[in-house]
């Protein structure tokens, strides 16, 4: 098992773009638009938080997978992909979290 699954998923999500809502759950989300996608991310984030509070590792992983999936849907909808996020994480790597946060402050 490798991080390549993120790229395979990204390819699958791209392939859903031309499909109709009755052919694919993802196509249905794309058709409903950004608000529906963001609502799903919010729901999945809440479920992830509740799973973490519950402390069951299997449930945490299950809910996190749902959250990541829907975040990947958002990226694809916005014509972005996992490489965009990985590049940003790489840029931040080795930078103190406090320094990185301070660099985002607006005067």
Automatic annotation (TrEMBL):
UniProt keyword Nucleotide-binding present: yes
Keyword Secreted attributed: no
Pathway assigned in UniProt: Amino-acid biosynthesis; L-histidine biosynthesis; L-histidine from 5-phospho-alpha-D-ribose 1-diphosphate: step 2/9
Annotated compartments: Cytoplasm
EC number annotated for this UniProt entry: 3.6.1.31
InterPro entries tied to this protein: HisE, PRib-ATP_PPHydrolase-like
Ranges that cross the membrane: none
Record GO biological process: L-histidine biosynthetic process
EC class name: hydrolase
GO MF, one example: ATP binding
Family: Belongs to the PRA-PH family.
Protein name per the record: Phosphoribosyl-ATP pyrophosphatase
Lineage, uppermost ranks: Bacteria, Pseudomonadati, Pseudomonadota, Gammaproteobacteria, Methylococcales
